[in-house]
Amino acid sequence: MFQVLMKLRWFFWQQRKRYAIAVGLLLFLNFVEVAPPDIVGHAIDLMNQRGMTVGRLWNLIGALALVIVISYTCGFTWQYQLYGGARVLELSLRKRLMRHFLNMTPRFFEQNRTGDLMARSTNDLNAVSQTAGFGILTLIDSTTYSATILVTMGSLDGWRLTLLSLIPMPFIALAMTKYGKVLHERFTLAQDAFGDMNDRVLETIAGIRVVRAYAQEEHEEERFAATMADVYRKNIAVARIDALFDPTISMLVGITYLIGLGYGTYLVFQSQLTIGQLTSFNVYLGMLIWPMLAFGQLINIMQRGNASLDRVNETLAYEPDVVDPPTTVEVARPEDIRFEQLTFRYPTSDRDNLQDIELVICRGETLGIVGRTGSGKSTLLRQLLREYPPARAGALTISGVRIEQIAMDVVHGWLGYVPQNPMLFSRSVRDNVRFGRHDASDAEVLEALRLADFVKDIARLPNGLDTLVGERGISLSGGQKQRIALARALLIDPEILILDDAMSAVDARTEAHIIESIRSVRRGRTTLIASHRMSAVAHADWIVVMDDGRIAEEGTFADLMAQGGWYAKQYERQQAYGEDALEDRDAMISTEERG
């Protein structure tokens, strides 16, 4: 049951001053709060024996007032320190999770659903936070507070009466242990189901256009209803066990009251106990109700916290697929990029996705990459992003240094990457363009948008640059999203600009205009362009044709046209039939370049 506290010992040590104050005050209040019943019992005995005087009355009132002031002051302080510590833990874990997510590579997100990660970042962290706050309170109150009350009862009112009244206590412990084990299992299943529900909602919202286009609203409602039914069933199973805690304890506490009142009354008649002592004893029994309930809550909270912490730690324990080496090599700037007999395979693939790639790109050159869908164009470009472990064979070097030996922050600082399906944030057009350079002026933003041929679209937007694009840019067309993403990359003026079919959703004329603009501002900088339009890379210094993970053809535009191979045939075909017509036809076959 207390495994969760051992797992959190690093945090308790880190916040030892805060928890020392909170626990110390709780222990001190244990002794303070047992005083009022004895004071009341003493007052009753004085009145019963006609020994109460005005002086004694004021002394008793003063003692009670002092207890109230001490309890209030100490109570405020321990609650601030204890629950403040719980929030610090939640904040710390949430920061660690966010940092972990940012360091993860695509494989992690392929293996973990977004909805489940959200559940672990919200519900599970809340359960762990409760363990570090309310859980510590229930631990103190169910052990030391109850022990203080019991010792006080035994000392002031007699051990026989106290021990006889506590006969139901072992049954409370037995019941709580059994309930706690079942609760842990059911709560884990309920949290998993909550993650499934989150994932279903996110998937539906992200694909709402497709759902409506195929008139699948009713089907999606049915699927969501089934998911909700599963969440409901599993949470009801948790609630059934949860609901047994308080009634079980209340019933056993009632038996304790019955024993105490019955046997206590007998002792009063036998003159072995005064009326004041019996009164204070019953008050103490009433005070014992909370520690007994706290014991039940303790099992409940600890089991929930343990299950949730296990889920959070499972996520944090995932090791990044790509990490910096212990010592990195300093590289001032990327003078050249070399693929030296590079062979690469995705972790989930059963075959090589790139084979024997031999390629040299000098600084300031433009490389064009073309090929059929699935030929390996995107895979080739992604080698520079360092999203996956190193190649199985060969090497990728920058300025003569293997890319694995260069710090990832340095490599990423050189890159401007625009994929075919860019990610836009639910912010304004201006903020999306300035994502890589928050200090960019409006003039610089407009210049980047001009290069991306987006200026003419600004006038058509409701609020110009301040127009919110919606989640994932849902309010924009595919071409507009691509051009904003391109402007975002151009704004940072990267050493290496990677365009992975980044203009597939714009017409050929617009693409030609953008390419010309890029050429005018990218002199002396390296540019890699993958495209399904042959003319888009005709200006490149070197062009490679990918086929099944290999370089099938390479050379300048003139070389490839002279060879009369796949590139020449595709170029002539696109020129003859019109690139836009072919674009529409290809879009029907595949809306996303894979490779």
Automatic annotation (TrEMBL):
<dbReference type="InterPro" id="IPR003439">
    <property type="entry name" value="ABC_transporter-like_ATP-bd"/>
</dbReference>
<keyword id="KW-1133">Transmembrane helix</keyword>
<dbReference type="Pfam" id="PF00664">
    <property type="entry name" value="ABC_membrane"/>
</dbReference>
<dbReference type="InterPro" id="IPR011527">
    <property type="entry name" value="ABC1_TM_dom"/>
</dbReference>
<keyword id="KW-0067">ATP-binding</keyword>
<feature type="transmembrane region" description="Helical">
    <location>
        <begin position="249"/>
        <end position="269"/>
    </location>
</feature>
<feature type="transmembrane region" description="Helical">
    <location>
        <begin position="58"/>
        <end position="78"/>
    </location>
</feature>
<keyword id="KW-0547">Nucleotide-binding</keyword>
<feature type="domain" description="ABC transporter">
    <location>
        <begin position="337"/>
        <end position="573"/>
    </location>
</feature>
<feature type="transmembrane region" description="Helical">
    <location>
        <begin position="281"/>
        <end position="301"/>
    </location>
</feature>
<protein>
    <submittedName>
        <fullName>ATP-binding cassette subfamily B protein</fullName>
    </submittedName>
</protein>
<keyword id="KW-0812">Transmembrane</keyword>
<keyword id="KW-0813">Transport</keyword>
<dbReference type="InterPro" id="IPR036640">
    <property type="entry name" value="ABC1_TM_sf"/>
</dbReference>
<dbReference type="InterPro" id="IPR003593">
    <property type="entry name" value="AAA+_ATPase"/>
</dbReference>
<dbReference type="GO" id="GO:0015421">
    <property type="term" value="F:ABC-type oligopeptide transporter activity"/>
</dbReference>
<dbReference type="Pfam" id="PF00005">
    <property type="entry name" value="ABC_tran"/>
</dbReference>
<dbReference type="GO" id="GO:0005524">
    <property type="term" value="F:ATP binding"/>
</dbReference>
<dbReference type="InterPro" id="IPR027417">
    <property type="entry name" value="P-loop_NTPase"/>
</dbReference>
<dbReference type="InterPro" id="IPR039421">
    <property type="entry name" value="Type_1_exporter"/>
</dbReference>
<dbReference type="GO" id="GO:0016887">
    <property type="term" value="F:ATP hydrolysis activity"/>
</dbReference>
<dbReference type="GO" id="GO:0005886">
    <property type="term" value="C:plasma membrane"/>
</dbReference>
<dbReference type="InterPro" id="IPR017871">
    <property type="entry name" value="ABC_transporter-like_CS"/>
</dbReference>
<keyword id="KW-0472">Membrane</keyword>
<feature type="domain" description="ABC transmembrane type-1">
    <location>
        <begin position="20"/>
        <end position="304"/>
    </location>
</feature>
<keyword id="KW-1003">Cell membrane</keyword>
